[in-house]
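Incident log, structure service

09:12 report received: a user says their structure output differs between two submissions of the same chain.
09:20 pulled the input from the user's history:
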Amino acid sequence: MLQIDKLLRSNELNFKILAAAPVVVLLVLLTGFLMREKVPRHTHNQLRATLRQTHSLLTRYKGEEVNDADDEEREPLRVGDVEIGLDCVSYGRILLALHRLSRLAEGLSEKHKEWFKDDLRQVETESFNVDQRLLTINRMYNTYPFLALH
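09:34 re-ran on a clean worker, output below:
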């Protein structure tokens, strides 16, 4: 019996290490999971909502362009010799939404951030008409998994 007590005391450190091992494994897994989810879900939701708003403004303007062709209040904005294809109010709202998207994109992974900002520049550019901007936004929905509704 004395031998067993002596053996158990000599292995006491091993027992403590074995007791702590599950906690260490759990902490490593939890840390890995938290590090993997760098962009909070609410950021994805805000990106999705703001891009939807931009798409809606472009679509609404495109519909008004067809329905209200004679409306002089909706005169297309011109920058130099280039016609933007949007009125001042719509273009301003779209620029504000694109600025918000650009700020939200800072939290994305490096690969997605670079592509996303490039796509935002394409939507913002003066050389694209409304149809090209809508096509770019549709491509964004198909390219980025965080814009898809789960």
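09:41 both user submissions now match this output. Likely a transient worker issue. Closing.
09:42 reviewer note: The first strand starts at residue 78 and ends at 79. The chain has two domains: 2-36, 41-147.
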